[in-house]
Design a protein that fits this description.
It is a single chain. The protein is mainly α. Helices cover 77% and strands 0% of the residues. The protein has a single domain (10-187), classed as Rna Polymerase Sigma Factor, Chain: A, CATH 1.10.1740.
């Protein structure tokens, strides 16, 4: 029997994440700072993909990390930390998008035009793609961002979106179809 002393990169990251979680739960608050710095860019990117606006994404990212800080002790260590974190990021970003949408509905008509000009997706350079992404609902944007921008597999996306991989595949298919229809509409 041969025992491999080499861990995969994923195993090392997962072990490092679990180690940081354990340190934080044990009272070492500096461990959370390491988690924050390690995952900030990915969480912000997910939020920006769902929300389409850099400032909203920054606010949502802070909400995500605040929620993680408060709830890290309840993290179920049977799953990957990154999966749990990305699920929190997607859910909080969707909640944030809904609250922002509600607030924007209440903006006076004269201010609405100014808000619309600020509502851009800076991560997407192709303006037609950005416009189509903004037209989609938050869940569709989230799954497209996870699959295409972060290149996660359906097995990884499923738990993040709160479903199994087959359901994630169906959601991705439907999101693609809605994106395609929007793209063709914009192309006319």
């Amino acid at each position: 029997m041969v025992i491999s002393i080499h861990q995969t990169t994923e195993q090392r990251f997962q072990d490092e994440d679990l180690y940081l979680v354990e340190r934080f739960v044990a009272g070492q608050s500096t461990a959370f700072q390491v988690i924050y710095e390690k995952y900030f860019d990915k969480v912000h990117s997910i939020a920006r993909g769902v929300l389409g606006d850099h400032e909203d994404a920054s606010d949502a990212t802070q909400e995500v990390f605040t929620a993680v800080y408060r709830n890290l002790k309840s993290f179920d260590r049977r799953s990957k930390f990154s999966t749990w974190l990305f699920r929190v990021a997607v859910n909080r970003s969707i909640q944030f998008a809904r609250s922002v949408k509600q607030k924007r509905r209440q903006v006076e008509l004269t201010e609405a035009a100014d808000v619309a000009t600020l509502d851009r997706i800076p991560a997407i350079e192709n303006q037609q793609v950005a416009t189509c992404m903004r037209a989609l609902n938050e869940e569709d944007r989230a799954i497209l961002v996870l699959y295409y921008w972060h290149e996660l597999s359906l097995q990884e996306i499923g738990p993040i979106m709160g479903c199994n991989p087959n359901a994630a595949k169906t959601r991705l298919f439907r999101a693609r179809e809605r994106f395609k229809a929007q793209f063709e509409k914009e192309d006319r």
